Amino acid sequence: MERNVTDQEWMYTQNLCLYISWLTSYGDKPQSGIIASELVSKTHEWFKTVQSANDSATAYAEFIGSSPEWVEILWANFFGSGEMYKAFIGLVTEVIPALGHPTQSAHFLPLFIVLTIITTIFFGLRIYSRLSIGGYIRSYDWIILAGFILTLATGIMRAIILMGPVHYRGVWDQSWDDYDALQASSLTNNVCYPIVVFLIKASLLLFYYQLTAWDPLRYATIATFVVVTCNSLALLFAYTFRCIPVLGWHGMAFLTAKCTVDRYKLELSTSIVNIITDIVIWLLPLPMIWKLVQTTTERILGVLTFGVGALACICCGMRFSVMHNSWFHDEVGKPMDSSVVATWTQTELYMAIICSSVPAIRALIIKKAPGVLGFTEADVTSMEKSRDSEDPKEKEATGVDVKRIDSPV
Predict the structure, then answer these.
(1) Handedness of CA 282, 124, 400, 230 (dihedral sign)
(2) Dihedral of CA 47/51/57/62: which sign?
(3) Residues contacting 45, CB < 8 A, separation 6+
(4) Average pLDDT, stretch 53-65?
(5) Which of 16, 31, 119, 201 could pair with 24 as two cysteines, CB 3.0-4.6 Å apart?
């Protein structure tokens, strides 16, 4: 007969599995690779040979490969006594079989591979466009290259963690080594995320700034850059120092660390700012497009070129949505599926890189194969002559100088 697990039993099981795994992290950690459910089972059998659990801290520490001091502190502060610890061990031994062995969703790795290939192609075309049209790679291309490399590196880390240490979602199916790897990778990814977002947006804003000398657009670009910088720094420092000490799961800090930052409020506030700045960055070049191009077709294509950035806004919103659902799901016995959050985080960053590469690719298509976008050779020649013959007084008034760089519009 299937056993129904209560909310309290679910909470007790997760906490006890973490505590018993933590005990194995002491010193040389001879048993830190053993999963928590096995440690619970072994401890349950060991207590059957002990007359008084309250007087067995030293013997139990030797049995589990820990420190008598750690065992005594854990028992006294979190369970009240050795006998209570023994009772919880017995309870959790009954609960674990009813929880099964849930695993992470399997879609992250194939999606990561596909998005990596697509993003690499888009970025390669972007660089080829710069070299074939302008003759050299711009500073903002190097900035976004750094973002691409960091996104790829963190994506590989996520894949390794999801397939290895946390393939099984339940803490009862994980060892201390698994938990340690998960915490280290989570901290790294949380710190790298705002850095990548900053690099991508800074690259776009630098592109806009160099694209024109029109003061309104430049002032708006600078203001947006300031907001993006502040938001990224807030997320970076908040996640870095969310817990004091920073590596709050190491040693006795596992029991004493103070984590005062509310992750949900942090993600909510910074995600809202991220979405707003995404929209602003999408809208910033539109007034310039209206000044620069004359025909309705060209204007529509120019708007669509920058408008694909809306996809990054959608992905950012989806990332926060799945994080919210993961943190506040209330299904007992079903631990969080980390792969869903990892998937949308990776998708958001890759889509931002892809969208930022579209203008350069459009410029390449117009130069190499204008027919793809409905242009003829005569149209391209006419556009080039029109821009070359632009009235200097009008150029000074509008501030648009597309000959300085390879304009995407």
Answers:
(1) positive
(2) negative
(3) none
(4) 93
(5) 31
